[in-house]
Amino acid sequence: MFQNPSDLAAMAEALSQSTDYRVLRRLVPRPTSMAAPGQETRTGILLDTETTGLDHAKDEIIELGMVKFDYTPDGRIIGLRDTFSAFNEPSAPISAEVTALTGITDEMVAGHRFDDMAITAFVDGAVIVIAHNSSFDRKFAERYWPVFEHKAWGCSMSEIDWRKHGLAGSQLGYLLNGAGYFHQAHRAVDDCHALLEVLAFELPTTGSPALALLLENARKPTLRIWAEQSPFELKDSLKRRGYRCSDGTDGRPKGWYIDVCETALDAELAFLKAEIYLRDVELRQQTLTAFTRFSSRA
After folding, report:
1. Which CATH number fits domain 5-219: 2.40.440.10, 3.30.420.10, 1.10.287.1700, 2.60.120.260?
2. Closest Cα to residue 158, out of 126, 135, 141?
3. Which of 72, 71, 96, 94 is nearest to 81 (CA)?
4. pLDDT tens string 50-63
5. pLDDT of 92-122, one tens digit each?
6. Nearest-CA neighbor of 59 among 88, 18, 100?
């Protein structure tokens, strides 16, 4: 029997009051709005890219989505200011694998080119750029548009310990479900709208929006430790510890590395001394901030 929207809304509300049910609502993008006069706010950018591959040095961006939003200094989202969405035709046909992953075909991007001036103008004035995998998106964005080199960046996937705060994973769709929504992601900007609601979600462990925790973590410096010339046979121990490998082809040192907070530095050095090198060793260290973290320049 057909139910009108008001009946369905009432049914959903009734179910949501029961501990036996969870209700997911279809995500409807927020309308644009401006902060109240005199309210102290800052502006952020949520960004998502679709690319022809994983190599930021040679593969190409075929779609860029961005959402510009205002937030208070304590990390509460005030409203959505503007959106940006554009395709870009790459220099070679899109592979079947990329089309299967992104849904983007050669026909969809044919004749499209990014407006670099419009993108730069859209980003100008924002104090932070956030992506749900900034170690991927930042490298591509900086290669195309230098404006991103001068912005602070945050990562909603890696700079919030979602499991610690009651969610069993960091995949965007799962986090959106945890916030009470579902969406059918078709375009990069759709994922930006989804991320906005994830960051607006109040974490049950803190009572504050997820954005507040992300900003707190993004502001902290981290230390990158390079375990260069470590014994090859111990690579699995490093991988289990969370180390990643650099082959040295992008200008960075060759070897295994890990990023840790300042308070974890001594413990990490003790692990390397006791489990990897079996001796005192001087290791290369880098200090990273939101202005260098996730960048290929780090």
Report:
1. 3.30.420.10
2. 135
3. 71
4. 999 999 999 999 99
5. 999 999 999 999 999 999 999 999 999 999 9
6. 88
